[in-house]
Amino acid sequence: MRRLSPLLLLAVPLLAQEFGGDSEKPETDAVVIEQKLKSLLEEYEAIARNQDLVQARRRRELAKRLGLLPHPASVKALLRMVEDDADLRTRIVAMYSLARIGDLKAVKRMYRKVKEESTARDSVLADYLGPALTRATDPAVGPWLVEDVLPSSNKLLRLSAVEALGKLRTPEAAAPLLHLLEKERRKAQPDPHLVHELVRALGQIGGDGPRAAVLAAAADADWRYRLAAAEVLLCHVRDDPGIEAMRRLLKDEKPIVRETAAIAAGREKTEPLFDELILLMREGNLRSKRAAYEAMAATSGQDYGYAPDVWAKWWQEKRKGNVGAAGELKERGNITVATYYDFKIFSDRILFIVDVSGSMEWPESRAGDPNRIAVAKRELVKVIKALDEKTLFNLATFAGHVNTWKKDGEIPATDANKAAAIQWIEGALLPRGATNTYGALIEGFERNPLVDTVYFLSDGIPSTGKYEVPEEILIKLRYANRFRRVIINTIALAIGKPAIEKAEKYEDPEEMAAFMRLLAEWNGGTCVDIRRPYLDLK
After folding, report:
1. Which residue of 22, 190, 419, 494 is 20 to 30 Å from 295, comparing CA positions?
2. Which of the 8 DSSP states describes residue 149?
3. pLDDT score, position 508
């Protein structure tokens, strides 16, 4: 089944099903609410101060459940979690739930707590305020954000307000956001993150003034603002100036701008852009080719694959009004790409990152069954052998520290380089130490400036590094990846059981897989979940 590229998820908050959002509808039956609420609150009281990892996980689940029960007692409990719970992850889930079922009074109280802590260095709660508030249901929240939060001198809080106002499409925010954009652009060094979010928010809100600002951003000398415009230019209006701006964006010098424009064209099913999409399929990199194909297929209802000449014939007949002749075309073009686990590698700028922490040696080998590291090594060698010579690639392993194969960045996948990579793998994939997920990904970004796609394999929850809490890693990567938009595909490899019986309680493959799924989906990728018994591994 055809599926539009998930790249624009890079600009979207955490997924609803993981953080108490929109995947389940709130309960409406008052009797059922009372019954469920009683048991949930009793359970929370019993474990509220228990810092055992298992009980902390349960409190997060309770915070999600409470977000489905609109009731003053639910709001009160969620406020208590936000303000007092010792587990950061529980507090973040409670923020999402509270924004969803709380009224303006509750949201204000949550904001005061976040503001109080946002003066501290590196406040994660402030980072999550915007994503949480995008789920607000009280219509008074938007105007309050305009009045009280948008003027804040705190950069994180102001950025959160801008993001939420765009998602909530608050019409009262248009004029203040335009004023803030003009003020920021007059600075000698504007904050690119703020300007980017302002352009996106104005495009989501719509109206004459916001549209003029987005059109101006589409022609800006700074590609980061053109990137924002490419996302939202077609949200409300498809007039001639907008179509012409999109045509320019589809030919932009920056590959990520071209790709983003193609995805937006497909999302809005914009047929007048077919000439530019066909050109992008001819000349773009692999990611852009895929975006162009998916846009044309979604818009036309046809599927000629990666065959720009056939698409051009179809488009020519369609414009002439020869719908029958257009429908008679049978050719279809394909691109042969390497595979890695269940992934088709639609990128020619790739980085493979493999976890070599101590747990990757599990399970203890028996009767010739491979352990985790053996499976990881086997699949990595297989995909490297299959890479096209035009592909740029690099490798990295991580445990407590990160070990990158080519310190100066990506190199072509020639036969000699592939042989050298395989030789390096034999000595580098040796399990030891903890799991520094954040360090591995950030170093991967920094050392490989041309990479646009990462394949990240791990078997566990982060346990060391600058950021260890999964929610910290997710939000900090969101910031680091806002403009670069590296797609992160993940492989959750948790085959077998821990060698140490005590570790079974804390490894929790379900939690690991949920984190890996979010890491992928929040960075435009997908997750392959591999948790199989011994006999399925050969």
Report:
1. 22
2. I
3. 74
